[in-house]
C-alpha cells in the first residue's frame, strides 16, 4: 500500500532542499542506522531530462561530505540512483513528481492494472489520460482514481512509442 507521508520526513525535506538547487528532485530518501555506521539511499529525478551519471556523482559529492561530518567517526554508505524505467511507487507524492509519465496503477475498484499518462493530482485523486484497463481492454480518454482505491503503482515504459512503432 502506498503511503502519503514522505513530505513529512526530515531527511527527505533536507535533501530535497539541497538537491533541488541542482535542478533535481528527491524521489525517495532512506536512512538506516547500523552499529558503527549508517546507510543512506537517495533516489533523484529530473522532469526536464534524463538523470545521468554526472548528476548522480554531483549529488553524491554534495550529500556525502555533509553527512560524513554529521556522523563523525561512524561509517557512511551512500547510494545515489535514478528511479529507473519501471519504479514502484512508495508514496502518493510520486504521482505529482512523475506528471506526464506513463504509469501502471492497480485499482481495487476495477480489480485490475490500469495504464495511463499521469495528468493531474488533486484532492486525493489521480487523473490518468489515455487510460486502459489491462484485463478488459476498456479505454478511457481520462480516468480519475481516488488514492483509497490505488493498491500499487509504478512507472511504465511503452517500448513501441520509443522505437517509433505503433500498435
Classify the secondary structure makeup into a structural class.
Answer: alpha+beta
- CATH architecture level-2 label of the largest domain: 2-Layer Sandwich
Mean pLDDT: 92
What profile does the largest beta sheet have? Answer: 5 strands, antiparallel
What's the level 1 CATH class of the largest domain? Answer: Alpha Beta
Number of E strands: 8
* Percent of residues in helices: 10-25%
Oligomeric composition of the shown chains: single chain
Count of the separate structural domains: 2
Low-confidence stretches: none
Overall spatial form: elongated
- Sheet-strand content, in percent, reads 35-45%
The number of distinct helices, counting runs of at least 4 residues, comes to 4
CATH topology of the largest domain: Alpha-Beta Plaits
Rg over CA atoms, rounded to whole Å, is 18 Å
Tell me what you see in this structure:
With 167 residues, the protein is α+β, with helices and mostly antiparallel strands. The protein folds into two domains: 6-81, Alpha-Beta Plaits (2-Layer Sandwich); 93-158, Roll (SH3 type barrels). The chain is 23% helix and 40% strand. It has helices spanning 10-20, 53-71, 93-97, 159-162; strands spanning 25-34, 37-45, 75-81, 102-107, 112-122, 125-133, 139-146, 150-155. The strands form two sheets. The protein has a five-stranded antiparallel sheet with strand order 7-6-5-4-8, with no helix packed on it. The chain has a three-stranded mixed sheet with strand order 1-2-3. The radius of gyration is 18 Å and the shape is elongated. The two termini are 32 Å apart. The model has no long low-confidence stretch (mean pLDDT 92).
Amino acid at each position: 500500500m502506498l503511503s502519503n507521508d514522505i513530505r513529512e520526513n526530515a531527511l527527505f525535506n533536507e535533501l530535497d532542499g539541497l538537491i533541488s538547487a541542482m535542478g533535481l528532485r528527491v524521489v525517495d530518501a532512506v536512512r538506516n542506522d547500523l552499529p558503527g555506521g549508517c546507510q543512506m539511499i537517495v533516489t533523484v529525478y529530473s522532469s526536464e531530462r534524463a538523470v545521468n551519471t554526472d548528476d548522480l556523482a554531483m549529488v553524491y559529492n554534495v550529500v556525502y561530505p555533509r553527512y560524513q561530518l554529521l556522523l563523525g567517526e561512524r561509517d557512511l554508505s551512500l547510494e545515489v540512483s535514478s528511479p529507473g524505467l519501471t519504479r514502484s511507487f512508495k508514496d502518493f507524492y510520486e504521482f505529482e513528481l512523475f506528471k506526464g509519465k506513463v504509469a501502471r496503477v492497480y485499482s481495487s475498484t476495477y480489480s485490475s492494472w490500469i495504464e495511463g499518462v499521469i495528468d493531474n493530482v488533486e484532492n486525493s485523486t489521480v487523473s490518468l489520460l489515455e487510460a486502459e484497463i489491462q484485463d478488459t481492454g476498456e479505454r478511457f480518454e481520462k480516468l480519475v482514481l481516488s488514492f483509497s482505491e490505488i493498491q500499487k503503482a509504478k512507472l511504465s515504459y511503452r517500448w513501441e512509442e520509443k522505437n517509433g512503432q505503433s500498435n
